[in-house]
Amino acid sequence: MNVTNDPGQPDFLPPFLPRLLLVDDEPRLLSSLYELLRDRQYQLVTATCGVEALEELDRQRFDLVLLDLRLPDMSGHEIMDIINAKAMDCDVIVMSGEVGIEAAIGALKRGAYDYLRKPYSREELLKTVENALQQRRLAVDNQSIAERLENSEKMYRYLVDSSPDIIYTLDHDGNFTFINDRAYQVLGYAREELLGRHYTMLVHDEDLNPARYAFKHGEPRASRSVELRLKCKTGSVGSDRTFNNTLMTIPLKALGMEGQTSALLGTYGVARDITDRKRAEEMISYQAYHDILTDLPNRMLFKDRLGLAVIQAKRKETELAVMFVDLDRFKLVNDTLGHVKGDELLQQAAQRLKDCLRRGDTLARQGGDEFTIVLPELRDRSDAKAIADKFLETLQKPFDLDGHIVHISASIGIAVYPNDGENIDELLRHADIAMYQVKALGKNGHAFYHDSMLDISHQKIALEQALRRALENGELEMYYQPQVDVATGRIIGAEGLMRWNHPQRGLLSAGEFLPFAEENGLMLPLSDWMLDALCRDVLLWNQAGGDAIRLSLNLSPQYLDRGDFFEKMRGALTRYGISPAQIEVEITENICIRNPQYAIDQLNKLCQLGVSVAIDDFGTGYSSLAYLHRFPIHTIKIDQSFVKEIHDENGHYPVILAIISIARGLGLHLVAEGVETGTQARYLEANGCTTMQGYLYHRPISLASFLDVLRAQAQTLLELQGREPAANIHAARA
């Protein structure tokens, strides 16, 4: 019979109350036992035989079983055997009327909590039940505490082993007593290889002294830090790594020989791997003092080394040389082949220069295509001259830029300490002045600084200032070289050329000051002036009553690159009320290669506006026919260097013929420049070029003279037509 509760008990008992199984085949005894325990806040279940008891044990969990040994279907010992076999979590109190000791021994052997002999007293039973349940509660609490401790230990171990830092403890002798798994991940050492070993086995040899000082000198509980390099295990990934060690001296408890507890001092440490941070800092520091493209020292590091070299030279009373190297023709290569090839050229040139130097010399990139060199401990100037000669020789060899063979040279200026300067700035400035003197004399050479060069440098500064004043004072003027149709003898256009009416030096041609203007940032304001002057002169001719004539304007690459060029052109045409058809823009073919798509976009805008485009000096640059076909070009101008080669009107000049054929094939207008002899004119005309400009016809002339020539031409045409000259002056139509 299974009894769970009675009318005196609530229908639902709290689930945390102890559950007891009462097993006895005597109904009277079972009922009496039930009544005895019912007021004790227990959940009670009864069974009258072994089968019922086992069914209840299988159905639910019990804290305590009060078990009679003598049951009708099986013994209590058999039930206990089954409980043990199934590892049921419950305690058993055996109640039996047998007087033999064997029954009690059998029950206790099977794990019974206690053995009560019938008849038992009420107090004895209640006390035994309460003690059994109390012990069980203590056991459960202990197990819970043990599980929490175990989980806490697992969590601690997980956190320690998962830490990104190496965590360790040392005994008072410096031997490892604990170290986490991070040491294996970073250094390659397993925990077993380090425990009991001295910490110095991990420290880099060069860092042993600071390590010993940091590990020995510390107050208890006082934190201190030391940066050390630790060794990686041989064969492990990576090299020695750098760690920031935070240390603390702590008391460690140890058990003495006779059981007393004694306090010893040990070390608790956390080692944080800062290798990547150190490498990043080193990289940042390296990049701050080195040129990224060539990996050479930059200007800042060069000055530091030059300063040290000057101090050393002063102490030893020796000479040193400073060189300033500028690569000739680099800008042309950079503009035509692009910046990627230009960078590659700089890298190759830097390596060649570096290969020429002695040990102890310093090569640095100053910026752009300029390099500086310091040569310490010179025996005499011939040492510097020998290295400069090596530079020139090695740079004259061709450079292969992915199939593009290019040639460059160098201009080298040399200043010697102490004669040419006793400090860094003087030496660099004088070497720079000497380099520019080489450039002025034709480039591809070297020169030692001397005081006379300073006067030349001052003259350049004066020239720059004077050129700026020329813009303000109206000293610039446009000259025009007519373009003639040889078939009719008529002037059909003219090329505008800038002249400078210098107050002291007289009339200067563009070639005498425009290259200097390009180097000093004056090309843009000069081009603005030239565009305005050209439109103004066209307006003067138009106002004089002449028919429309087209004037051409040489366009600087710097001017085209400026984003507002198109707007400036359109603004000038609108301001002066000039037809765009009267303006032609001349560009060099190298502009087309440097940034083809940008140039196409800019020139297309001009064409849409109505301005025509001509390629000047055709055949002297690096243009390709593919680009030429894509560009909105109206005119090709044969460079005078090809025209000068014509000495026989019956000769064969294939470059001239090829250019004429290209123009004819593309339907372009053709102009020959620099025509100075009749032989040249007849050859060109015979082969299809009928528009020419050059000294054979006209030199560049001022606007007033140009207008006079146009008036004379108009007068001549009227006379040939047998008519009286009209009141207005008419020029030949373009």
From TrEMBL:
The keyword Phosphoprotein applies. Gene3D superfamilies: 3.30.70.270, 3.40.50.2300, EAL domain, PAS domain. It comes from Pseudoduganella lurida. InterPro entries: Biofilm_reg_signaling, CheY-like_superfamily, EAL_dom, EAL_sf, GGDEF_dom, Nucleotide_cyclase, PAS, PAS-like_dom_sf. Keywords: Phosphoprotein. GO terms for biological process: phosphorelay signal transduction system; regulation of DNA-templated transcription. Residues 152-207 form the PAS domain. Residues 460-714 form the EAL domain. Pfam families: EAL, GGDEF, PAS, Response_reg. This is PAS domain S-box-containing protein/diguanylate cyclase (GGDEF)-like protein. Residues 318-451 form the GGDEF domain. The modification 4-aspartylphosphate is found at residue 68. NCBIfam families: GGDEF, sensory_box. PROSITE patterns: EAL, GGDEF, PAS, RESPONSE_REGULATORY. One of its GO terms (molecular function) is catalytic activity. Residues 19-133 form the Response regulatory domain.
